[in-house]
Write a structure and sequence with these properties.
The protein is an alpha+beta fold. Among the domains are: 28 residues, no CATH class; 236 residues, Sandwich (Immunoglobulin-like), CATH 2.60.40.1760; 79 residues, Golgi alpha-mannosidase II (Immunoglobulin-like). Strands 1, 6, 7, 8, 9, 10, 11, 12, 14, 17 and 18 form an eleven-stranded antiparallel beta sheet that branches. Strand 3 and strand 4 form a beta hairpin. Helix 7 packs across helix 9 and helix 11 packs parallel to helix 12. The longest helix has 20 residues. It is globular, with a radius of gyration of 26 Å. The C terminus is likely disordered.
């Protein structure tokens, strides 16, 4: 029992839900004891010596004594490696057809009995014992995968014809990168965005309360590493959704030749295929290739790029009207208001509490007249209650996850004892997607998926479904060990495709707490339950940057934190950061402090209002960035090294970011700060508040009064902005902005 288990167990004592969670935990343990294969004596295996190779389009298959490796270079330069017949499909990550092979890539013998695949954009070298090196066309090494190791039962055949890792074999892949390399990615990590030495788990997890930078794992884990070094950038993706752990250790450069220590990565997986993709190039090229493989990001409707206000605890229609009226009366822009589980009848999904919300369609229409959309939470758990329409229709359709005996798996969630749709079944996704018709009829314009790791409250053990629970997995069949990490992704697909069918003329707006590689196809995400405090503020930025480098461009935090009552200063600094992030949303628990800007005093209201109006002015720029993200894979929010990955000082900068290519935002992340150092990339940068020019690369000290955070514009930038009367204007920084050659801004009709 770890610390999380102990906290959960203590929190359940003396409550009815707590007693049910004890029963759920015990039932889960019994199901897994009966339904999972017993682990006996095992032996470790390695591929052995290379025996030969067979050419194929884009590369070929290299055969070893106890394994085989398929190497395939795609036309765009992406490298696929699959051991023992593992191919690119089936895969939940891929957003379309497998990229065509590079017909010009050639498989040829290499020295010492190995092989290599030569192509225009990348060189792949396969050693005679199974190592795989990815090099630039000029031969510079970027990544070296050592021969993999897997474990199999001791009674498995040991002759030379024996295959490598089976579908449930544990395996390990060790890799080396350049000594100066820095690691990023692995999904949503509270510490970062640069990933320090340590072990990171690949298992989507509700932390069971508010999280801080030291908590790991969180809601979205992905086996996606972005590695940045002087010699080049590469992205490595191990296409495997099983539970795993990644151990990272940065390298060191010695004083003399031959004394460098490479950076190291060790990936340990509990099962699943041993297959990977590697993309090489600039950060922009790498993310473009990653988006081409996993799918273009969903384009949010323009209103979703404005300010959202949410709370777990809007008790009635009257309170919703009061909050919206507060924004209107104070002239504060508001695009959306979110309703949490408390608007449901007894927390039952796809229902409405008619006593507190007697006319939701009328309320939605009333708010729409004010330019405010309603957004609904949607949880996957369905209360196991005969007579409840959603439960009855799902039971009739056989839609719920089952155990090894064919019985629906039950867990404890907000509505009580619940069952869980199997979103890995296409028929179940179609059924679930049709249920959004009820939400649309209630007047909702957008949706946020919650609790979809999935969560089942347990007093001890993992707060999720039994690992032995059975899933369709697109007809292949399997259990929760493989389905867990893609559950939220498949739910997002069900909702997105359902909404697109129900309202073909509208862009679906959906964001999800959990997901996996490729989730950007269906929408975005948010931080989850980040703790109120200055560490939580810093974690908010780390999450957005890290997710963007994994291909998820639309995300943002709970401004103010989810659980506590922020001070006016903390709230304001969080609000100012949020104004420059893709998803700009305040949110809090019902037991936490309010999040309306006027609740923090006149000075905070004034400065928060200025941030809101600046976000409103920049909406055309955010719309532009959303289209660029869809077309190129470039995130809205980018690390400051985006265009200068060879700048080692910038690679270690984690307290500022680029918004698109034009703006550099330096949020205040520490209490009592009114000036802060800002590290500039190369080029000339203009302080948008003072017009003063600064030359990079280098560090400058800028004022950061409570009224604003430092924002700089790249010289020559042209930024679309909302001008007077809603007309489109242009912000221009540099000599073109004025006859004197200083920095300036032109804003007008266009």
């Amino acid at each position: 029992m770890d610390a999380r288990d102990l906290r959960r167990l203590m929190g359940t004592v003396g409550t009815a839900r707590g007693l049910r969670s004890v029963r759920t935990a015990w039932r889960r343990r019994c199901l897994d004891a009966a339904g999972l294969p017993r682990q006996g004596a095992e032996r470790a295996r390695v591929p052995g010596a290379a025996l030969g190779a067979e050419p194929a389009p884009g590369g070929g298959v290299v055969r070893f004594a106890r394994s085989s490796l398929r190497v395939r270079v795609a036309a765009g330069g992406a490298v696929f490696c699959g051991w023992d017949g593992a191919g690119p499909e089936p895969s939940y990550a891929l957003g379309g057809p497998v990229p065509e092979a590079d017909e010009r890539a050639v498989l040829e013998p290499d020295k010492d009995g190995g092989w290599r695949v030569v192509s225009e954009r990348v060189l792949v070298v396969v050693g005679r014992h199974g190592s795989v090196e990815v090099r630039t066309p000029g031969g510079v090494l970027l990544r070296r995968d050592l021969p993999p190791r897997w474990w199999e039962p001791v009674d498995a055949p040991a002759d030379v014809e024996a295959t490598g890792p089976g579908p449930s074999s544990r395996w390990t892949q060790r890799s080396e990168v350049l000594p100066d390399a820095r690691f990023f990615g692995l999904g949503g990590r509270a510490a970062g965005p640069r990933l320090r030495d340590g072990t990171y788990r690949l298992w989507n997890t509700d932390p069971g309360g508010a999280f801080e930078p030291g908590d790991d794992p969180l809601y979205i884990t992905m086996p996606v590493q972005l590695v940045v070094a002087d010699a080049g950038t590469h992205l490595a993706f191990h296409d495997n959704s099983w539970d795993g752990r990644v151990t990272l250790r940065e390298g060191e450069e010695g004083a003399g030749s031959g004394h460098d220590r490479p950076g190291r990565c060790e990936l340990r997986m509990d099962g699943g295929p041993l297959r990977s993709w590697v993309f090489v190039g600039t950060p922009a090229r790498v993310l473009h290739g990653w988006a081409a493989l996993t799918g273009a990001a969903a384009l949010p409707p323009a209103w979703a790029l404005g300010h959202h206000h949410a709370r777990w605890g809007f008790g009635s229609e009257a309170e919703v009207r009061r909050v919206v009226a507060g924004y209107v009366e104070r002239g504060l822009p508001l695009s959306a208001l979110h309703l949490d589980i408390d608007h449901y009848r007894g927390h039952r999904v796809f229902t409405v509490d008619r006593e507190r919300f007697p006319d939701l369609p009328g309320l939605a229409a009333e708010l729409r007249e004010l330019g405010v959309r309603l957004v609904s939470i949607v949880d996957p758990a369905v209360k196991a209650e005969p007579g409840l329409a959603v439960y009855d229709s799902g039971a009739e359709a056989g839609a719920f996850v089952r155990d090894g005996r064919g019985r629906a798996v039950r867990g404890e969630v907000w509505p009580g004892e619940s069952v869980f749709p199997d979103f890995t079944d296409p028929a179940v996704r179609a059924w679930w997607g049709g249920l959004y018709a009820e939400r649309l009829a209630q007047g909702f314009a957008g949706f946020w998926h919650d609790m979809n790791e999935p969560v089942s409250f347990t007093a001890f053990g993992e707060p999720t479904l039994p690992r032995s629970a059975r899933h369709a997995l697109e007809g292949r069949g399997g259990d929760h060990r493989e389905a867990h990490n893609v559950y939220g992704l498949a739910m997002a697909r069900a909702g997105f495709e359902g909404l697109r069918a129900l309202r073909p003329g509208e862009r679906p707006f959906l964001f999800s707490r959990s997901g996996w590689a490729g989730m950007q196809r269906y929408g975005g995400t948010w931080s989850g339950d980040v703790a109120t405090g200055w560490p939580g503020l810093r974690a908010s930025l780390a999450l957005v940057l890290g997710l963007g480098l994994c291909g998820v461009p639309y995300s943002g935090p709970d401004i103010g934190g989810f659980t506590g009552s922020p001070s006016p200063e903390l709230y304001l600094r969080w609000f100012q950061l949020g104004a420059y992030l893709p998803l700009f949303r305040t949110h809090a628990a019902h037991f936490a402090g309010r999040r309306e800007p006027w609740e923090f005093g006149a000075e905070t209201l004034e400065h928060a209002g200025a941030a809101l109006r600046e976000r409103e002015r920049l909406l055309p720029y955010f719309v532009t960035l959303s289209h660029l993200a869809r077309r190129t894979g470039a995130p809205y929010v980018r690390p400051v090294w985006w265009r200068s990955p060879e700048d080692r000082v910038l690679r270690d900068c984690e307290d500022a970011f680029l918004l698109g290519d034009s703006l550099l935002v330096a949020p205040v992340l520490e209490q009592g700060t009114d000036r802060r150092a800002v590290r500039l990339p190369r080029g000339r940068w203009y302080d948008t508040a003072t017009g003063r020019a600064h030359e990079g690369p280098g560090q400058v000290l800028l004022d950061a009064p409570l009224s604003r955070i430092p924002v700089l514009a790249r010289a020559g930038s042209v930024v679309p902005v909302a001008g007077a009367g809603g007309r489109l204007g242009l912000g221009v920084w540099g000599p073109a902005a004025g006859r004197t050659g200083g920095g300036g801004l032109i804003s007008g009709g266009g």
